[in-house]
Amino acid sequence: MDQSFDEFVHSHQQALVRYATLLSGGQGEAEDLVQEVLVRVYPRWETLDGSRYAYVRRAVTNEFLSWRRRWSTRHIRSVPEVPESASVELGWDEPDERLGRELRKLPRQQRAAVVLRYYEDLTDAEIASLLGCREATVRAHVSRGLAALRSVLGTPERVQRGVRGRGHE
């Protein structure tokens, strides 16, 4: 299906922002992240082959993982950080604020691997392609990330149920 850029943004922006929120830990940063990626993708929209959603999701992931483009170094924050008790709507049926806080504490690669696995339902091969690493590295990131979450949150079923979201629509 050959969607126009406007149709793509209309049908996928919310899912991309939810995904970016899980990665970045804040809705405002997620919206900025997605907006930045969409602005850069727009000029070459017609030349993109394959799944445009996958391409944009990868661009969001790369932007999040990029140390050179970290939002904290690009923007002056005129207000204090959002308190840990603040809640961000992630599109879950029953958002677990504690899970969100603990997910934000994971190293960036682990957080990305866990979110891609349990929120976007990607395979090890797909995650490895997105993160630019081997499948074994993806399994290690997911395993370590889940172990860290389990150590503070409890059983794996609770952790996996909390991270699992609606993904793209």
TrEMBL record:
Coiled coil: none annotated. Residues 9-70 form the RNA polymerase sigma-70 region domain. The keyword Transcription regulation applies. Pfam families: Sigma70_r2 (PF04542), Sigma70_r4_2 (PF08281). GO terms for molecular function: DNA binding; sigma factor activity. Keywords: DNA-binding, Sigma factor, Transcription, Transcription regulation. GO terms for biological process: DNA-templated transcription initiation. InterPro entries: RNA_pol_sigma-70-like, RNA_pol_sigma-70_dom, RNA_pol_sigma-E_actinobac, RNA_pol_sigma70_r2, RNA_pol_sigma70_r4_t2, RNA_pol_sigma_r2, RNA_pol_sigma_r3/r4-like, WH-like_DNA-bd_sf. It comes from the Bacteria. Residues 97-149 form the RNA polymerase sigma factor 70 region 4 type domain. Belongs to the sigma-70 factor family. ECF subfamily. This is RNA polymerase sigma-70 factor (Sigma-E family).
